Amino acid sequence: MKNLAHIWREEKTEADGSVTITAIIEDSKQSKIPLWYRVPAEHSSKITKSWDPLVVGSIFWGMKRGADLHVHGEISPSLLRNLEKLQIIWACWRPKSFKKIDVIADKEIEQQRADDAAGDIMAFSGGVDACFTAFRHAANRCGRLSRNLKAGLMIHGVDIPLKQKEVFERAYQNSEAILESLGVELITMATNFKALSLGQDAFAGMTGSCLMLFQGTYRAGLISSTEPYQSLVIPWGTNPLTDPLVSSDAFEIIHDSADFTRTQKMAMLSEWPEALSRLRVCWYGPQNQKNFDRLNCGRCEKCVRTILNLRVVGVPLPESFEQDVSDAHISSLRNLDQTQANEFRSILQEAEKAGISASWVNALKFCLWRNRLEARLKLFWYPIKNTIYNLLPGLKKQKQKASIWKP
């Protein structure tokens, strides 16, 4: 029997000052999975009636399960063409995770694009990448490439769990103040997208679908780059190759600012004190209920590299960080993934280029050396460990002790 899932769109519901847009994904076993997006009622008129964003939000779910999608509504033909390319790429990158599927719509009708004056909307988290995108466009810092940025969209349910409403409210207040200094509106949205359990690979599907809900009101949606062109990590959930493929002719998704390193972004942000004082880069501190009043923990990997970005460009520690980082803590960072290691290598290169010879530079060199050594040891040890475990199954039942290269 063919693996076929159906997508239905429910009527908008309003309650407690919010409007909820819901898609129901019905799988081949007739299990119904809700995918919902919630915005303040004052923005209800900005939400499109098109089914395009719901298809973008569901495409990775279908690919992961190898289930064709029958969409009981209208889809833009241009979106279907782009999603075809998106699937081909991800099926090549992750053949064990994603399969190319068919997307069938009851109707294929191209949507109307907003006029030029409508401007653009961007995904805004309050971090370095998002602030840089906002600043360079709203302040017209990129010449002919400047976009007419009108709004930012802050999505609850991405880095801050839905149950942590107070944490999100504080983060929103900081982000609102940042964009207000540029005259840019900030809109909030909540979504249960993460309940689909698709992982980081589906980041553009999640963010693109949230932005695309505003097609017809805005002309394009911007997703800020995380890695520069010279050190791209592929596959990665957001990248300049596949982000634009969650676009249609009516609403373009733009992967923005990959021509800048994080340190270069920080150099430009040094001209914007409102952003520096309210930067939110931490993925740990704000979610820790004990430290929920903090914007940033000042200890995690992302906080550390942001502080080092600031040091390279000669910016004093802003008030968004309550504590500085020591050489010992820099040296102690372990288990860096490829993206994180690339970021720290970039910082080291920028520091050496600027002729910085402070003690923290040596601490960073040691950190990168040790992480590189431990990564090689893992590659050497894991095959041996697996062979031993296969030969002695009883060992699998024993609780493993932390190895010398684990924190």
Please outline the major beta sheet.
Answer: 11 strands, mixed
Number of helices: 11
- Weakly predicted, low-confidence segments: 399-407
Query: How many beta strands in the DSSP annotation?
Result: 11
| Structural class by sheet pairing and helices | alpha/beta
Alpha carbon gap, first and last residue:
48 Å
What is Rg? 23 Å
User: What amount of the residues lies in strands?
Assistant: 15-25%
The global form is globular
* SSE string: EEEEHEHEEHEHEHEEHHHHHH
The percent range for helix content is: 25-40%
Mean of pLDDT: 91
Protein topology:
Layout: E1 4-9, E2 13-15, E3 18-26, E4 32-40, H1 52-65, E5 68-75, H2 77-93, E6 103-108, E7 120-123, H3 128-138, E8 149-156, H4 165-180, E9 185-191, H5 203-212, E10 220-224, E11 252-256, H6 262-269, H7 273-276, H8 301-312, H9 327-332, H10 338-353, H11 359-391
Helix pairs in contact: 1-2, 1-5, 3-6, 6-8, 8-10, 10-11
Summarize the structure.
This protein has 407 residues and is of the alpha/beta class. 36% of the residues lie in helices and 17% in strands.
Can you walk through the features of this model?
The chain has 407 residues and is an alpha/beta fold. The chain has 11 helices and 11 strands. It has helices spanning 52-65, 77-93, 128-138, 165-180, 203-212, 262-269, 273-276, 301-312, 327-332, 338-353, 359-391; strands spanning 4-9, 13-15, 18-26, 32-40, 68-75, 103-108, 120-123, 149-156, 185-191, 220-224, 252-256. Strands 1, 2, 3, 4, 5, 6, 7, 8, 9, 10 and 11 form an 11-stranded mixed sheet that branches. Helix 3 links the parallel strand 7 and strand 8 (149-156).
